[in-house]
Amino acid sequence: MAFNIGLSGLRAATSDLNVTGNNIANAGTAGFKQSRAEFADVYAASVLGSGKNAQGSGVLLSDVSQLFNQGNVNYTQNSLDLAINGNGFFRTSNNGDISYTRAGYFGTDRAGNIVNNFGYKLQGYAVDANGNLQNGVLSDLKVESASQAPKATSTITQPFNLNSTNEVPTTTPFNPNDPTSFNSSTSVNIFDSQGNSHAFTQYFIKTGANTWQMNVLVDGRNPANPASTTPYSANLTFNAAGQLDTSALTSTDFTVAANGTLNMTNWVPAASDGGTPPVWSGNGATASATGVNFDFRGTTQYSSLFAVNSVDQNGYTTGELAGLEIDDTGVIFARYTNGQSKVQGQVVLANFANMQGLTPVGKTAWVQSFESGEPVIGTPNSGTLGALQSGALEDSNVELSDQLVNLIVAQRNYQANAKTIETESAVTQTIINLR
User: Fold this and answer.
1) CA 79/CA 84 separation, integer angstroms
2) Position with higher pLDDT, 8 vs 331
3) Whole-angstrom distance, CA of residue 296 vs CA of residue 236
4) CATH 2.60.98.20 domain position(s) in the chain
5) What CATH superfamily classification does 155-313 receive?
6) DSSP class per residue in 123-178
7) Residues in domain Flagellar hook protein FlgE/F/G-like D1 (predicted)?
8) Fewest Cβ atoms nearer than 10 Å: which of 133, 136, 147, 249?
9) Which DSSP symbol is given to 299?
């Protein structure tokens, strides 16, 4: 009996050494979760029971469980390196074989798919043709590396303040090259359908108490007729409190909307031939199909210097992919050289009712099993799922000092069990030597 007990002890100590050695070997493996050998005693069973003074029959390895406590998060220089701070696993696909991992080594393959260092594709919510996230529909995440198409300007929002103390200019007629013929001016770049930039310039001329004329040129030309330098005009009226009276807004060139905005519906994007003098004509591009809506509601006339309070226009030129950013909810943003950003998808995380039931398959990955239950899929930072950290990796959760102590304990256990066998052998030999 003592031989079997000692032998079971040797096997248990060997298993303990194997588990501890594997932990130590993976102390530098990102996303690795340390294991723990769990043992149970053995007693022989009989029909009438073992009695209150039953002797044990040794030890057995009852389970090797993994500890899913959080590892340290270390920052890297790769924006596609991802770390989970909290619960959850990345979901990856290898030609349809689904696995789950905490190792966030991600990059892109030649097709633009986001893959880990084994080529498994990261899954999440993709976007449709309009850039809208397809929530609830899992698919392989992909980075679109093509140039971003330009967008023609359709809205300009630009409230400003006109100086009420200004005098009516004495120089007439209006000349954009003569600052004495107007009181103030400002400019904003707008874009045509091909992404060409054009200067949308407004000149403000005081015409009387609380009344102003706003002249508009695009690239110094008439918006509808590039061969002409005659500006578009609109008449502005302010009340006694210095607020713009949108109901009194008039123009023969712009379309005046009921909400107090102006619409430039017939803009012809133009370009110069570079000659002397230059000849201006249409450049082959078009304006936005809805025209250019100019919203300057909120404009005031106060006794302070002319100032543009804010400016925003929604057009842009073409852009090349400049970089990627992933926020803590997993949304992937592509940054372009034109200053725009575009949603490319959203990383999802999976969690399980029984993480201990997951089956490890190597490569720092696990697969679902009957014991683990079905995965609960969600976006990072929602419910019980952890937050996502871009440009970082989760270290192994192995504590080397603990493992080195475990090595000493396992070694002594092995030696002690070997001593049990040695002692039993000596006893047995004594009996054999009896005469």
Assistant:
1) 14
2) 331
3) 11
4) 155-313
5) Flagellar hook protein FlgE (2.60.98.20)
6) EEEEE-TTS-EEEEEEEE-B---SPBPPB---EEE--EEEETTPPPPSS-S--TT-
7) 83-130
8) 136
9) -
Q: CA–CA separation, 121 vs 307, rounded Å?
A: 52
The residues that bridge with 216 in the sheet, in sequence order, are 202, 232
Nearest-angstrom CA–CA distance, 353 and 371 = 9
CA–CA separation, 189 and 199 (whole Å): 5
Q: Cα–Cα distances in Å, from 179 out to 171, 203, 233, 258?
A: 9, 10, 17, 33
pTM as predicted? 0.77
Which amino acid would we find at residue 106?
F
CA within 13 Å, CB half, 158: 23
Instruction: Report the share of the chain in percent with pLDDT over 90.
Output: 77
The answer to whether the beta carbons of residues 214 and 304 sit under 8 Å apart is: no
- Structure token digits, residue 304: 């302070």
Peptide bond into 277 cis (omega under 30): yes
In 3D space, the residue among 394, 388, 387, 350 whose CA is nearest the CA of residue 372 turns out to be 350
Question: What pLDDT, on the 0 to 100 scale, is given for residue 144?
Answer: 86
Distance of CA 277 to the CA centre of its chain: 51
Closest CA to 161 of 188, 184, 189: 184
Q: Which residue has the tokens 């603990």?
A: 402
| C-alpha to C-alpha distances, 270 to 82, 91, 254, 284, 342, nearest whole angstrom | 47, 51, 19, 8, 29
Q: How far is CA 79 from CA 100, 102, 245, 326, in A?
A: 21, 16, 50, 7
Spatial separation of the C-alpha atoms in residues 148 and 158, rounded to whole Å: 26
Confidence of residue 53 (pLDDT cuts 50, 70, 90): low
pLDDT tens by residue, 313-323 = 999 999 999 98
Quote the crossing angle between the two packed helices 400-432 and 2-25, to the nearest 10°: 160
The answer to whether the beta carbons of residues 315 and 153 sit under 8 Å apart is yes
Q: Which amino acid is at 146?
A: A
CA–CA separation, 223 vs 264, rounded Å?
8
- CB 200, CB 216: distance < 8 Å: yes
Spatial contact of 312 and 188, defined as CB atoms under 8 Å apart: no
